[in-house]
Structures are given as structure tokens and as C-alpha cells.
Amino acid sequence: MKTKEITKIAIMISIIIVLGFFPPIPIGLLPVPIVIQNAGFMLSGLLLGKKNGTISTVLFLLLVALGFPLLAGGRGGLMVFFSVTAGYLIAYPFASFLIGWMTEKFNPNNKGVFAAFVITFLFGVVFIDFLGAVGISLISNVSLSNSLIASLAFIPGDIIKAFITAILARRISKTLNKKG
Q: For the packed helices 86-106 and 38-65, what is the interaxial angle rounded to 10 degrees?
């Protein structure tokens, strides 16, 4: 792995950490709050591709597992992987991989914001929210159908995050391509 790739991975991990500083917003429907941090996992796939985007996400989650309080709300440690947010945490590396893979295949160099948005919506928003709902259902003994219905509360905000992420990825890619 080249130094440039390692640097991009480290910067992406830093971005994800900074996004965790935004306080989580609790909602009444689910025991899971609204967070901005999941936009970082989507961005990692868009900007770094399937391999390096997944590596950045896995390394971030490894830091969390080691006990660093890097998740939104200052959470960390192994127990977060056994809490109601487990489905979301498990979904993040897969989402980064899928977003990166689809971006490399259908939207190389983030040439189109619309394509990046569709990829991010399908493999970021829908995929993450679905696995998150499955996790909530398994851990909190809520039926899957009720968990999925309650998870619809996240969709409007996640659509906005996916759109902003697609725009940011396009602008960052454009800037990086200009600088070589």
C-alpha cells in the first residue's frame, strides 16, 4: 500500500471521528438516535473506493472496539457491538464496500452527482437502515416489521445526508484531480 493511500485512509478516519462530535439526536420511535457520523462511512466508499473505503471503516470500528469513545455521543468499547446499534455498526463496512464498488463500476471519479446520490441512497441509506432495523429487532425483541416501519423516521434525514455526501465527494474528487 502506498503512502498516499495510507494518508487518505487516515484522513477519512479523522473525518468520521469529527462527524462523531456532532451530538446524537434522540427520537421517540426507536432506541437509536439520529447521527451525522454515518455520512462519513458513505463518503469513505465514494472517495476511497471499495478497498480503501472499507479499510478506513474497519479501522475506525477497531478503534471503537478497543474502547476509544469515537461514536456519536462518546460511545466506544466492545459492548456497543452488542447494543441496539449493532446492526448499524455491522452495516458500515459493508456499505462502504458496496458504495465504493458501485462507484468504481458506474461512476468513476465521481463524475455525476446524481449517480453518486443513487449509489449512496441504495447502498448507504437503504442498506444501513435495513441492517440497523434487523439489529434492533434481534436485540430489543421488537418485531422486524415494527422495527422497519420505525426506521422510516431516519429516511428523510438520511436522504439529505446522502445528497450532501454525493456533492462533497464530487467536489473533493474534482479538487484532488486538479491537483494531481
A: 130
pTM: 0.93
pLDDT at position 31: 86
> 130 is written with which cell numbers?
435495513
Instruction: Please enumerate in sequence order all residues whose Cβ is within 8 A of that of 117, keeping only pairs 6 or more positions apart, or say none.
Output: 162, 163, 166
In CATH terms, 3-179 corresponds, of 2.40.10.240, 2.102.10.10, 1.10.1760.20, 1.10.10.10, to 1.10.1760.20
3-state secondary structure of 128: helix
Whole-angstrom CA distances from 89 to 4, 15, 126, 171, 173 are 27, 17, 14, 27, 26
Are 131 and 154 a contacting pair, CB within 8 Å? no
CA separation for the pair 178, 180 (Å, rounded):
5
pLDDT one-digit tens code per residue, 89-144:
999 999 999 999 999 998 766 678 999 999 999 999 999 999 999 999 999 989 99
Rounded distance between C-alpha atoms, residue 120 and residue 98, angstroms? 9
